[in-house]
What we know:
It is a single chain. This protein has 262 residues and is α+β, with helices and mostly antiparallel strands. The protein folds into 3 domains: 1-91; 123-162, no CATH class; 166-262, no CATH class. Helices cover 41% and strands 19% of the residues. It contains 4 helices and 9 strands. It has a 5-stranded antiparallel β-sheet with strand order 6-5-9-7-8. Strand 5 and strand 6 (213-215) form a beta hairpin. The chain is elongated and about 85 Å long. The N and C termini lie far apart (149 Å).
Amino acid sequence: MHIPSRLHHHFIRASHCRDIFLAPAILLIGEIVNIKQGTQAARELPASRKKTGRMVLKRRLMAGLALLLLAVAGACWWVWERNGAYGFNVLWRRGGSYWVNVETDDPRLSPAMRLALTVPVPPATSGPMTWQEREKGFEVAELPVMAGGREVDRILLARIDPAQYRFVVRNAPDGEKGIDEWERALPQALLIVNGSFFGLKGLPDTPFISEGTVMGPRRYKARSGAFVADNNGAGVRDLRDVTGTGSRRSMGRAMRWSPIPS
Length: 262
């Protein structure tokens, strides 16, 4: 078929134009594809970083928790070694205690204590009191403490006939008993009084005898008296006259405070 040269020329130009216009279209499509692939890669990169960050955070939290548990276990071991069950009960019941230095005029001290710490210590005398009988053979009174012409403190007293009442000595070394628990444990008790001195594990630091069982230190230099109750009555006895564990056990019930004069 013969194509006129003029038409042939236009066909070639059209073909060239088609090629010219098609090439940018192909490049544009390629660029669009590349942009989409780059966007997908950009999306995948932060996701992987987030996953890695979460893993690092989780590991740090686990390490912190492990260190916390280790610290708690160490603290529990220290309390057990130092105070035994008594230490845990003290923390659970009262939250523990600590000592702070105070001045002699610190307002946190009672007025009587501040007065007793003054130099020189003012002379103190007893005020008037009256015994009141609550039960037969059991009387109570409040003794005013006078200093500088005024009452600065008050002492609660009890007077008991040992012929009508029995004295009992008890110890709760685990520290699980306060005054309320002792009242429930001893419902027949007419009077409950805290006594003696106790060590870090709740055991008595002074001679202590409960129903013939000797507690407290094995060796103790007796230089004062102790409250002793047995079948013959009750009273303060000079510990210098008591020698040997057997003699002390024969007392039945005894408790030593400090200081008690012999």
